[in-house]
Design goal:
11 strands, DHBP synthase, about 220 residues
């Protein structure tokens, strides 16, 4: 029985190749996970599944990949990107975490939330919100993401796969390559997903502020 596929999707206009892995959702194939991490470390953009739909990701230190993501999303330099972390301990290396923020993270992660926090010097400046020196963080529970992060020494930069001028995120992985024009180096396919992104909560001040309502229940922060 064939349990995984490795396809190559070409973009005829640019001659760029997009790799395509069909992943087991509950038990991701270790060989494919290692290849995905190698592609990230080589400075390419990947599309991958999260608990709230598909997302774009890249290495924390790949300026070129980060610029590609900003272009695909039409995000200016003031818009902070998200760090996908495997634990609160890792979050505390890249963000300033006080006692109240720690309590919130402990209660609501892993989960479909993105929290905006002050960035430390470990976060590359191109990933920060330029004027406020902030970054989003996510800790989620997903077998594919867990497997990738276990192979990485740093968080992955991430943002929802919601392309510029689209009214909703892309939910069908077979549409990602043609819609991104060869800009994505790898697609990790676990099937069609939902179109609700994470709920975004600003924790920069004493009182949480809801920036975007999504899959995560916003009521605890209202």
């Amino acid at each position: 029985m064939i349990v995984a596929k490795f396809l190559v999707v070409s973009n005829d206009l640019k001659g760029i190749m997009t790799k395509y892995f069909t992943m087991h959702l509950d038990n991701p194939q270790p060989r494919l996970i290692k290849q995905a991490v190698a592609i990230l470390n080589a400075g390419e953009v990947i599309a991958y599944p999260t608990d709230s739909g598909y997302a774009l990701g890249c290495s924390l230190n790949s300026k070129k990949a980060l610029e590609t993501i900003r272009k695909l999303r039409d995000l200016d330099e003031k818009h902070p990107l998200t760090l996908l972390c495997h634990s609160i301990a890792q979050v505390s290396q890249y963000c300033f975490v006080n006692n109240e923020v720690f309590r919130i993270l402990k209660r609501y992660t892993p989960g479909p939330y993105t929290f905006i926090l002050p960035a430390t010097k470990l976060v590359p400046k191109p990933a920060q919100g330029i004027k406020r020196k902030v970054v989003g963080i996510r800790i989620l529970q997903h077998p594919v993401v867990d497997a990738m992060l276990s192979e990485m020494t740093a968080p992955m930069l991430s943002t929802s796969l919601w392309l510029a001028k689209d009214e909703t995120p892309i939910t069908d992985p077979t549409l990602i390559a043609p819609r991104t024009g060869g800009a994505v180096g790898l697609i990790l396919d676990t099937g069609i997903m939902g179109d609700l992104p994470s709920t975004v909560i600003d924790l920069l001040n004493d009182k949480p502020v809801i920036i975007r309502k999504g899959l995560g229940d916003p009521s605890p922060f209202e």
